[in-house]
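Write out this protein's structure.
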Amino acid sequence: MSELLLARHADCLFWLARYVERAENLARILDVNATFARDSKGAQEWLPIVQLHADTKRFVARHTEASQETVLRFYVTDPENPTSIVSALRNAHENARTLRPFISTEMWVQLNVFYNRVRAFGEASLSPGRLSRLFELIKEGCQTHTGITEGTFFRDQGWYFYQIGRYLERADQTTRLLDIKYHHLLPAPEAVGSPVDASQWNALLRSAAGYYAYRRIHSSVFTPARVAGFMLLNPSFPRSVALCVRELGLLLTELKSRHGLRRGDRAAEDLDALQALLGTLTIQQILIRGLHEFLDQIQRQLIAVNDHITAAFFGRAPASTGVQTQH
């Protein structure tokens, strides 16, 4: 890729990374909910998935109840739902098509085959006996894309925009997952420490691919504060908000210094403030202040970072949700 990177190509790289990350996160959440998540009576609950993605209005307009069948169809195979996995991969594919002269042949071929395979999923693919394999295929496809990108993408300006999009999406997804799941999973006082309680926190960690990493630090003891602290503040967990924000700051600083870019100061200032906030508070202080309010503050700051990056580098008005694509 040449040293001069057009704004539209930087924009496409930013959103290519975000959409692939979004598809993988959604597959993880759906897989874990189908496999592990149960309420105190042993029943699955699917409405929290809709709430997590702020899709209640859109979902209710098309479905009368949030069952496993309707939620999985809505989030896996529905091409009319802009937040479904097939829509995310369609948008990633379209961005990659625009970037065809700039990305490796391996990146393009893998994503093209992967998207067409997911697009071909039908109702039978969502049957209970095939769900686990379906979600494994989606997760493996996203991870393969990430691995091929890591191994073949030339380290120029485009690389930084791709990585910035990836970490921004990951931080946002972690806050939203923790926000809806934390309050939904808080048990009644008499249920604390029960097998149901432990299985729920197990499910939350697995949704963020953090179960085994958490066990390395805290053994098998699950508490709301420990799980929330791990997902928010742990500096070594790849999906923690603290690690993602730190990486975002480093990437933006290096992008600006290495390539002599004068813009992006407001995004850098927002990231500095966010990193300072995450570095000075303990999880106990956060819980006292109110976890929901704290997560809402982080989400708003991440949206501001997205908007400032979009305005500074991509030459267009921000579209914070990323639903509008086809760059």
